[in-house]
């Protein structure tokens, strides 16, 4: 009698841990990181790690945001990935890369408590591409030089939820990702309105001294 072969299910954090176990020693550029790991969505997940903590890696917002956008575009249009030198040459220490892995593994640990394959919606390729397009829009928000708390955190969480929903085929998590995206857009809108109001008040206050 043949024994049944048990196939172990690997969630996203398991895959990320496998990538971490293959991490080479020494410094790495973003280009080397991409060439070393041939898994676009997993790299995108790794790249949002700095935005999930209060203190991001200095100068990481632009190159990481650009790389997320480029990777998403390549996934959407199924094209070969080209990495510009000014992004690809961005260098990370071994300790920094390890920290990125640790942050994202911890974040996934919370999310995967509620994640499982469910619903049919996210299984459609067109829906997954729409999710990636939303990730592009959210990544653009990471570029905005706003000295306001959580302007990196909210888009990053939204991107993480949408990417994991694609990988895990979880339609409910995808819906949660869009709810978080709406919260993100509302937060940016409210902060923008508040910023404009503050600027107007400062200008009026300054003009009052001229009269």
TrEMBL record:
Keywords from the named record: Membrane, Transmembrane, Transmembrane helix
The UniProt record lists the keyword NADP: no
Name of this protein: Exopolysaccharide synthesis, ExoD
Chain segments annotated as transmembrane: 42-73, 130-151, 171-189
Coiled-coil regions, chain positions: none
InterPro entries per record: ExoD
Source organism phylogeny: Archaea, Methanobacteriati, Methanobacteriota, Methanomada group, Methanobacteria
PANTHER family according to UniProt: EXOPOLYSACCHARIDE SYNTHESIS PROTEIN
Organism: Methanosphaera cuniculi
Entries under Pfam families matching the protein: ExoD
